[in-house]
Design brief:
This protein has 225 residues and is an alpha/beta fold. The protein is built from nine helices and six strands. It is elongated.
Length: 225
């Protein structure tokens, strides 16, 4: 359990696998791609179901290449790019984790609330809209709005978030799921950091970056009290 201290004035969340299931987003994208390319693929199996299986295989990073090969296509970079475009631009079918829904409602009456998220801007904004988050938090920063060089572990988003919320760094807390990049900058700036180690999280087994170990680990946002 993480008891929020009297010094804490802002609680800032990551998005993917912190407030909702990243796996659910991925599978939503696979269904969008399968539907958009159904006629071209003409597969004797459900392509979305097969892509979901490939997500938990060594082919995770090349799911579209693999599904095309299984459908009898020669290597076709243009078709893969088209599939990626549909995936990134689809309107996702996702929902907040129950504990995230509760945490946003419970904490927003006491603390300033923010979101800092990496990922392609069009994709992250679509997730934010699908989750109806814009009116539920005080500030949202999608780092890709500034360009990929500002993705975490770059410090700009954390500096800007503290400025927008008018809260000093030492009064900010960041809850996120990826030890490889999420906590480097907030640790350096003096934020309190919380690793949300959800069972089945896509990034929870990543080793912590140098200087990037979170101060506390939880398995549910219910622990933020």
């Amino acid at each position: 359990m993480v008891v929020l201290s009297s010094d804490t004035r802002a609680v800032v969340f990551d998005l993917d696998d912190t407030l909702y299931s990243e796996r659910a987003y991925v599978f939503s994208g696979y269904r969008a791609v399968a539907d958009a390319f159904a006629d071209r693929l003409n597969a004797p199996f459900d392509p979305a179901e097969r892509m979901r299986a490939l997500f938990d295989s060594p082919d995770r990073a090349r799911v579209f290449n693999a599904i095309l090969a299984e459908c009898g296509f020669d290597d076709d970079p243009d078709l893969v790019r088209d599939m990626i475009d549909v995936y990134r631009n689809h309107r996702p079918t996702i929902s907040l984790f129950a504990d995230a829904e509760d945490a946003l409602s419970r904490l927003s009456s006491v603390y300033r609330i923010g979101i800092i998220t990496d990922g392609y801007a069009v994709t992250q904004h679509a997730k934010i809209d699908a989750l109806n988050l814009r009116n539920r938090v005080d500030e949202i920063i999608v780092t890709d709005d500034w360009g990929r060089k500002f993705w975490k572990p770059h410090a700009r988003a954390f500096e800007e978030m503290a400025r927008r919320l008018s809260v000093p760094h030492e009064a900010c807390l960041y809850a996120a799921d990826n030890p490889a990049k999420d906590f480097v900058a907030p640790n350096a700036l003096g934020w309190r950091t919380v690793f949300v180690n959800r069972p089945g999280g896509v990034h929870v087994r990543n080793p912590a970056a140098p200087g990037g170990a979170a101060g506390t680990t939880i398995t549910s946002l219910d622990a933020l009290l």
